[in-house]
Write a structure and sequence with these properties.
alpha/beta, inorganic pyrophosphatase (n-terminal core), Diaminopimelate Epimerase, Chain A, domain 1, 2 domains
Length: 339
């Protein structure tokens, strides 16, 4: 795998005649916004693109994702470059491998720590708040116009991966990019309203059921919730409809680590983790379940029965919090201990 900077990434994309753009399973706002913006930007400079997702686009993101299609067997192998955004491993792309392993080089554009050496090229920067920030830099380097539609997609990417600018990944560059998107005509209020104020009655009912599963562990510093298959079926909803539920656990006073477990129709468990401070780096907790992510937001897919996994998870979170607290105290100097 060859690591690229923004200049060489733009050159690689500019040289391609037809690019396939992919994201990850159960795509979120950053994934969908990054895919859409990259496609629109490349099309604006004359490069043909196809944008595929194996999973349906959640309703609240459809306003930015009109060009995303289901994979096409007829077009498999028609691309001279495959760009994969917002995922560090091919295992999370979530489409048939025959659409990925066509002989075309694979380019990763991502802000997660890279996993195995699976890509041909990688434009990777873990200091960036969202994959959308990396896509923005690439489009600027390409000379693509930041139109209102591209700006809408990028803004959706950024606000979802920064928790509306409340997460610890917010930095000066994020805000500079947002200013430029506003200058391009992005209506920040309208996008925030569409994403965060459009829940269905069923989603609110499911949220109520989920909050009733809330348990505190680790002396009140950990919060664990879950949604079972039966709960999803009762409201005829899917995991994509619970994307932000974990943040309700994170919002509790005194809680430092929040966990949400969603049981998929096939029994697979989707674990979402959030933390409030870098001291509680939940990417390390996710690795215990063969997952990954960022210090403030991470996750994993687990294949275990839900009740047994919840017991294990509560034990792991308690131990994780205890280790973090111990590390905090051992790093303190004698004056901080009062000696």
């Amino acid at each position: 795998m060859k690591r690229l900077d923004v200049h060489s990434t733009a050159a690689l994309l500019r040289a391609a005649s037809r690019v396939l753009i992919l994201g990850h399973v159960q795509p979120d706002g950053d994934c969908l916004g990054s895919m859409t913006a990259l496609s629109l930007g490349l099309e604006a400079i004359g490069t043909q693109t196809d944008v595929w997702s194996g999973d349906a686009v959640p309703v609240k993101y459809r306003f930015i994702a009109g060009n995303i299609q289901q994979p096409s067997r007829e077009l498999a192998g028609a691309h001279d470059l495959i760009a994969i955004v917002d995922t560090p491993t091919l295992a999370r792309v979530g489409i048939n491998p025959e659409f990925v392993h066509t002989g075309a080089p694979l380019l990763s554009i991502d802000h997660h720590p890279l996993g195995r050496d699976e890509f041909t090229y990688a434009f990777n920067d873990v200091s960036q708040a969202a994959a959308g920030c990396l896509v923005y830099e690439v489009l600027r380097e390409l000379g693509a116009p930041i139109t209102r539609n591209i700006g809408n997609a990028l803004y959706a990417a950024i606000i979802t991966d920064t928790g509306c600018f409340t997460y610890q990944n917010v930095n000066r560059r994020v805000l500079e990019i947002v200013i430029e998107l506003i200058d391009a005509g992005v209506d920040v209020y309208d996008i925030a309203r569409t994403i965060y104020s459009s829940a269905s009655v069923g989603q609110m009912r499911l949220l109520g059921l989920t909050l009733n599963t809330l348990e505190l562990v680790g002396n009140g510093k950990g919060a664990v919730m879950h949604v079972s298959r039966d709960m999803f079926a009762r409201e005829q909803l899917a995991a994509a409809d619970t994307e932000d539920f974990v943040n309700f656990g994170r919002a509790i006073l005194g809680v430092e680590v929040a966990a949400m477990v969603s049981e998929m129709p096939d029994g697979t468990l989707r674990l979402s983790l959030r933390s409030k401070r870098p001291l509680y780096d939940v990417s390390k907790l996710a690795k215990q379940f063969h997952g990954g992510g960022h210090p403030g937001a991470a996750g994993a897919l687990v294949r275990e029965p839900l009740p047994a996994f919840l017991d294990k998870l509560k034990e792991r979170i308690t131990a994780f919090i205890e280790r973090a607290e111990h590390a905090k105290h051992t790093r303190k100097g004698p004056h901080e201990h009062g000696t």
